[in-house]
Every structure is written in structure tokens, then in C-alpha cells.
Amino acid sequence: MNIVVCLKQTFDTEAKIVLDSNGKIDSNGVNLVINPYDEYAVEEALKLKEKFGGEVTLVSMGSERVQESIRTALAMGCDKGILVNDPSIENPDEWATSEILAKAVSQIPYDIILAGRIAVDDGSSQVAIRLADALNIPSVSSILKLEIEDNKGTVTREIDGGTELIEVGLPAVLTAQKGLNEPRYPSMMGIMKAKKKEIKVLTLADLGMSAADLPRKMSIPKFSLPNARTAGKKISGEAAEAAQELARLLREEAKVI
Amino acid sequence: MNFELNEDHIMMRKMVRDFAEEECAPGSEERDEKEEFPMELWKKCGELGLAGITFAEEYGGVGADYLSYAITIEELSRVDASLGVTISAHSSLCANPINLFGTEEQKQKYLVPLATGEKMGAFGLTEAMAGSDASGTRTTAVKEGNEYVINGSKIFITNGYYADTYVITAQMDKSKGNKGIAAFILEKGTPGFTFGKKEKKMGIRSSATYELVFENCRIPAENLLGQEGQGFKIAMTTLDYGRIGIASQALGIAQGAYEQALKYSKERSQFGKTLSQLDVIQFKLADMALQIEAARLLVYQACDLATKHKPVSKYAAMAKVFAAETANKVATQAVQILGGYGYTRDYPVERMMRDAKITEIYEGTSEIQRIVIAANILKD
Amino acid sequence: MAKGIWIVIEQSKLEIRKVSLELLSQGRIIADKTGEPLIAVILGKGVTDLAKRVAAYGADKVILVDDDKLADYTTGAYTSVLNKLIRKEEPQAVLIGNTAVGKDLAPRLAQRLGVGMASDCTGMENEEESFLTFKRPIYGGKAFAQVASNVRPVVATIRPNTFPVAAEDASHQAEVVNETADIDPADLRAIVKEIAIATSQRPELIEANIIISGGRGMKGPENYTILEECADVIGAAVGASRAAVDAGWIEQKFQVGQTGKTVSPTLYIACGISGAIQHLAGMGSSKVIVAINKDPEANIFNLADYSIVGDLFEIIPLLTEEFKKLS
Which residues constitute the domain of residue C184? Predict the structure, then answer.
């Protein structure tokens, strides 16, 4: 089975966010990790490989540093990586990202494409689904369980207040929700083997594209930091007093009850 | 000379750290309190390839260098020193002597399952009359036909009772002193081999420390490790390499204690400032950071020599004694910085302080390490 | 040329979701300001009667697409229908609630239309050049991005509870247009076999106005009944922090936080929750935060509007009684 995983490198969720002098998000000193939701996609891909045989190829976009994350996924057991790294296109919007990934993925055989349902940095939750449309294949988002038989996927998908069971023909794009699986740690052996695995680095030209093909659909974002929430009222007294005072404040002052 | 870790080592450190924080740290206090051996975690360590890091792939190992091993033991010990020594004793004290001195058959039969983590190992050298002075060995081995008969006992054996494979020393000819000692490979369940006292300890309480008892225990002649009379040399070489493991354990304890103190000092306020804003505390933290850095460099140097198969005795002894003394100083200072809270079980530093002490004692006391260093520098 | 602001109405079993009413209400304000018509688009089966409802919330026109194949939401069919309608009618903007449906539908639709999209917006303003600018949280709410679309239609999903629901005006009339469902067969490759909705009287977390949440301080699964009793008196949803979910005390679907659900209630009551940054990512945009925790140093006290340092096991039952007295 040819399994493709779309991998994004993001800030660690613990990272403190500051703006630099240009008003952009400062990445200095920030710990970069595999987007946690993409880890579920990698794990699911590895389980499919264990069951059906085949190869897991990682596809990613970004700067050279992204190789660290690809290498970690290779250490987990994936087979090869493709990184699109082209400085001529800076901070592409979701549409451009999807167009580029679609071109990259189209160059390799794929039976199934997995990705995390959302990236913890921009929180857009768009690219994987856009990719499916660009490739003209079905997509199922936010999956909690996946079974494959006879080139068909039976998927449990999370919806508001419950789940639904979907049958989808492959190839398809599936996006992983937390709870799909428990991502494995890379083993020592896996780490040792990872450096011998191939990471192909491509430019837009290698994909037959140029920045001119990818006009911005969205404006360049302007960033701001939230106003610090400060501590409000401390309600003291015995439990009974405090509870009474809180209820009163919520009703009369905050007017939320 | 490159002082930065390469990509692989960085990845290994991250993997073991994540594993340690997510899986090992949560139950560490409870295991310490109940003196509960970390069996499930041992198995997971095996699955991750942590049981045979330095052994060749053909023997079920990972074929990685000593630095990878040191990083592993350090990261495990940073959250749970008992788990750190469980892996270290298994690897350095049991699997390694078989790796260095075993026959091909012995390596296939014993080293492979140890390296893969399928079986656990332990090392039986210490006895009631043989601590720092190995010539006090009273356990005996007598050759009878194609068997050896072992009689005697060993105390303070790490991983005792839980380990499947044991490398032990026994005296075959008292008149030859140390040159009469031989080393053997022994399996749990061999008739005549039982376990005695379980030690109640000050620290590393979830590490298993047991007495081994041999009563006319018969083992096949093929279980002799190396040559008769080579046992003392095997033990000393084993300990030389094992010291890197304990130095790493001590380094991990120090690092863990230091991080607790650093974090607390930024959160706790007294006299209108955080502790980290007070000179008194800043100097303590600076000293802790400095000592840990020095210990780390000594450990890494010893690793470099070990990986290159260069003589490691002096440097391993230096790393061990310095890291052990650092761990004790840093952990004690960490309790001091956390004050009253640090003395309670609500914070892990009191456990780290209790755990640190043994690193100055086992696998060669700090006094013995100094004897080793002196012997090395004076013979040059 | 006035082309309209489209609100894609989400309905489930012919119940209109609250977020759609929120979007109609806010859409009405923008429509009044710009002179654009406000157009509600409803896909489903048997949806005719819903037209009156959306008219009462301000729609000038309602486009109904009533078809068997649209009875339940599916990615392909809905994308297909909306894509064809939008290409025909060319609205200025298309707004969808950021629900499970919205998150699934909007990106696919945007790609098919060849346009950009702003996701999970918590602010929306009319602007001269780009028609709408959006404010959206990034990095788990630790920062915000202000974005706009360079092309038309502007497509965005809006976080539930961002805009208030206006008062209903039954006298407001809307033109009703019926369209046929034009579905590409290629868009029917994913089939919904079964839908399992957990039967719970409590509101859905991402839409709830009030949430009472329990963390590590709950000490065990059985203690959540204390929160449930309180929730039922005030009509709240029950949530949890990651610590409680990881400990196995409560299901993952209740988790609020960076790797759980993002909520935006009017009132968030955090019980035994320390306030780790990842939890804040999930509830930091709550209007009012109440924190009850035994630990006076808990981080959550640094941002709670009302704090009680105390034992939640004593306080919550007493609070439940106080709430009962108020109602």
C-alpha cells in the first residue's frame, strides 16, 4: 500500500508567542515539533503499513528545519520524505499550500493520504481537505477509527455531539482527530536507521510551478497579541458564604446566570 | 572536537525524555513509596531498544555509541533514578561482561535476549565480606565432572529476584587470592539458586536489591565466563564500563533536582521578590549549573573513549566520582532551595536527595574511585 | 453591484443550529450598513418550513435546496450544490458556522471555488476594500491574526458564540427561491452509513453558554456527578481538562483545551483546574471565568474574573443550592 502523510512542523504548544520588530511572529528560540495531530496520522500510517505492507511517504513544506521533524517521523518507521522548500514563496496561504502539495503528491503513487485534522499554529484546519479537492478525491475529516478492506475505508468520524460511520472509496484524504491512536515513540533502532532514509528536497520549479502561478487569495495577516486578562475578584470566607457571594455576583454583577 | 550533540543524539534524548516524562514520571513517587519494581516500564524500555544500546545488531542490540547510552540513563534517572539503575545494571553489569568475555555460543544464548530486553540481567559480585575488597569473596565454585557447584551468597544485588540472567563471581582457589576468582553465567530457576533478603533502602527504593543464595547450585561447565582465574579481571573491567552508567544516573539525578529548584525559585516569592531574584539563591543555582556542566563533560569524555575502545578506567572513575558528588550536592541544595516544601513528599527533591547518596557508594565507592585515579596517574 | 451576503444555514433534523442564527443576526447588521441583501441558504430534506424562521432573523432571501440526497450532511453533495449555486449567483461573501460541518465543508468549497478562507473567526468587520476583515485566534489563542480576502466570494467560518442572536421579528419577510440539487456523481464517493448521536440533555460544549469544567482536582470519575448536578440547574455543559481525560476519569469528547475542544461560553466555571496554558487555549475567550481551586498559586487565578480558594467538594454543592434559590 502506498501511504502518504502530510506533515507540518509547528511551534511547541508550550511556546510563548512574541512579535518581532516587523510585527511578525518571532520564531527565535522556539522549540519546533511535529504538529501533534499529524503524529496521529503518522501512527495510523505505520499501522496500515504493518498490516498491508508497502511504504509511508511524508510530504511537507517549509524551510530546512522541517527536515528535523521529517527525520523524527522516519525514525518512527516511515520510509521516505519529500520537502518542498522554496524561498520564492513566503508564507503561502492555504490555497497556495494546497496547490503545491497537490503537485508534489501527484508525482508519487498514493492509495491513501493521512493528515492531522488541524495544525496547532495557525489553527486553520483547511489544507488537507483542500488537497483532496485539488486531487479530485474524497475527504473525510476528524476520524476516530479507520478500517480498510478491499480498497475501501470504513471510518468513524467525529461530529458535534456524536460520531458517524462513513464508507469511502480509496484513494481518499483522511484527517486524524485525537483519540484515533496512541503515537509510538521512535525506537533507538528507528533513530539509528532514520539518517539513511531519503528526504527529497524540491523547489517549485521541480514541480513545474512558479510563484507567479500562486497569487495570494488572502491578504498577508497582521498579528496582534491579546490583552492580558488580569485577575479579578477574590471571594473569601467560609464555603457557604463564598458560594452565596459567587452566585450573587454572577447574577447581579456579571449578569451571566 | 565538537561539543554539540549530533542529530541522532538530539533525537534520542528527546525520545527518552518524552518517554520518561509521559510514562515514567507520573508513578515514580508511588513506586518509591511502595518500593514497587517498575516491571511494566522495564518492558517498555525493552520495546524501545533501551536495553541493548551499545551491543552489536547481530546480538540483538542497537549498535549505538556510549554517548547514546549515557543520554538514555541520564534522561531516565532525571525523573526516576530507580528505573535508571535498573537499565544500567542490566546493560553494563550483566550484558556487557558477556559481550566482552563470552564465547559465541554464550553471546547467542544469553546476550541476545538481554540486548533485546526479553530477559533482564543482574551482576553478583558483592558479598558480606567483599564490598570494596573483592578478595573477601567467600562464595565458592568447585568443578565436578562437567559441572560447577556453587555455594555461598551475594548481597545488595540490583535487579535481584526479577532478573533472569546473572553474572556472578566465585572463588575457586583461595590460595591464589584475586587470581582464584572465576565468573559464571547463571539463570534464575536453577536448582540451588534462591533469593534471600530484600533490602529496605534509603533511596532508589523501587530498584530491586536482593540477596542471592547458592546451596549446592549446579551449573553446566559451559556457563564459565572467560577463563578460570579471570573472574576478578572480568569484574574490574565490567565495573570500569559500569561506572559510566552510574555517572550518567548521578548526572540525571542532579539535572532533575536542579530543574526543580530553578522552576520553584521563579515561582516562589518572599521578601517581595521571587527567590530567583535574590543573590543568595542565584549563586546557589549558578553553582549547581556549573557543577552539572562539569560532570556532563566528564561523562561525555568517558563515553567517547569507551566508544573508541580506548582505556577508560581513569576517566570513567573521574566521571563517576565527580558526578556522584555533584548529584549529592545539587540534590541537597535543591531541597534547601525548596525549603520546608522540599522536605515533604509533595515535591520530588527529597526523593532525589535520598536517591543521590547511593551513587557515591555502589559500583565502587568514591574512595575506591580515587584509588583508581591515583593508581592511573602514578603509573604514567 | 449588490450580490449578497450568504449565510449557509446548518440544520440537523430540521433544527436550525444556534450559530446560524448568530450569523444571520450579525449578517443583518452588515447588510444594513452596506446595502447588500442578506441571503440564507438551506440544504436538506423537508426544509421548506425553515424559511420563515430564517426570515424572522433577518434574511431578505432564502434559497432552499430540498433533496433526498441532502437529508444528512455529506461533504461531497453539499460542496457540489453550493459550488454550483455560488458560481451562478456570485455572492460577495459566504459565511458558515465553525461547527463539525462547517470545518469539513468550508475548506472543500473554498478550494473548489479557487478562493481563500478565514477559519474559526472571532471577529468580523465590514471594510471598504475587502468587504470583510476577520480576526481569528492563532497559536491556541496566544495571538490573533487579522485577515481579509483578495478575491470574491469572501469565505469564512465563524466560531459559535461570537455574535449575539438578535430578537426574532416574525413580521420580517423574505423571498423564497427553490433550487434543484445539482450534484456531481463523483461527489458521492463517501457514504454515510450510520449516525450515532450521544443522547444528552446538556448543551453541546462548543455551543454552550455556560460550562462547568473539572480537572485534576476532581480526584476521580465518580466525582463528576457533583458538576453534573450543578450543570443541570443552570443549563450548562460539562467539560474537563486534559489531566482528567488522561487519567481516564472522563471521555475525551469533554476535553477543553488545545488538543480538545475550543469553547467560547458566556460563563466558564473551572473546578480543580490549574490553568495550564494549553487549557487556556481552549477556553481563554470565555466572557466570564470563575475558578475554584484548593491551591492558591494555581495559574488560573491569574485570569479568573471571580476566584475562590477552597475545596470544590464543599463549594460546588453549596453553589448548586444557591443557583437553585436564584431560579
Answer: 5-188
C15 sits in which H/E element: strand C15-16
Number of domains in chain C: 2
All domains of chain A in start order, with CATH: 2-213 (3.40.50.620), 233-257 (no CATH)
Distances from the Cα of A120 to the Cα of A8, B317, C67, C282, angstroms? 10, 47, 37, 12
Same domain, C81 and C125: yes
* Interface residue A194 vs chain B (CB under 8 A): yes
> In the structure grid, which three cell numbers stand for residue C35, read together?
446595502
Nearest to C150 among A11, A217, A224 (CB): A217
Query: What is the number of CB-based contacts under 8 A between chain A and chain C?
Result: 259
In this structure, is residue C195 part of a structural domain? no
User: For B158-175, how does the pLDDT look when each residue is reduced to its tens digit (9 = 90+)?
Assistant: 999 999 999 999 999 999
* pTM (predicted TM-score): 0.90
List of E strands, C45-92: 61-66
- Go through the domains of chain B in sequence order and give each one's CATH number: 7-119 (1.10.540.10), 122-232 (2.40.110.10), 239-379 (1.20.140.10)
Q: What is the ipTM of this complex?
A: 0.93
pLDDT, tens digit, 9 for 90 and up, residues B37-84: 999 999 999 999 999 999 999 999 999 999 999 999 999 999 999 999
DSSP-assigned states of every residue in A153-206: EEEEEEETTEEEEEEEESS-EEEE-TTS--PPPPPHHHHHHHTTS-EEEE-TGG
**Number of DSSP helices (H) and strands (E) in chain B, helices first:** 13, 10
Shortest Cα–Cα distance, A83 to chain C (Å) = 22
Residue C51, in any domain of the structure: yes
Q: Is residue C273 part of a domain?
A: yes
d(CA B165, CA B74): 24
Which DSSP state fits C181? -
